[in-house]
Amino acid sequence: MPPRLGHGLPVKPAKRSVGVPAEQGDTIVDALTANGRRLPDRPAMRHCPAERPTQVDWKVLTWAEYLLAARQIAGGLADLGIDPGGRVAILSTNRVEWHLADLGTLFNGSVTVPVYPTSAPSQVAYILGHAEVEACFVDTRAQLAKLLEIRDQLPALKRVIIADGARRAGDSFVIGLDALRGAGADRLKHHPDAVDERSHQVRPEDLATIVYTSGTSGPPKGTMLSHSNIMWALRNVTPVYDIGEGDRLLSFLPLSHIAERMMSDFLPIAVAGETWFARNLATVAEDLPACRPTVFLAVPRVWEKLREAVEGHLRAQASPVRAAVKRYADLGLRNVAFEQEGTPVSRSTLALYRALDRTLGSTLRQLLGLDRARVLITTAAPAHPELISWFHAIGLPLLQLYGQTEGCGPTAANRATHIRIGTVGTVLPGMSVTIADDDEILLKGGNVCLGYLNDPEATAELIDADGWMHTGDTGTFDADGSLRILGRKKDIIITAAGENIAPEVIEVDLTNHPLISEAVIVGEGRRYLTALLTLDPDTLTRWARQHTKLGDLEALAADPDLLAEIQAAIDQVNTKRSRAESIRKFRVLAHVLTAEDGELTPTMKVKRNIVYEHHAEVIAELYASG
Question: What CATH number belongs to 492-622?
Answer without folding.
Answer: 3.30.300.30
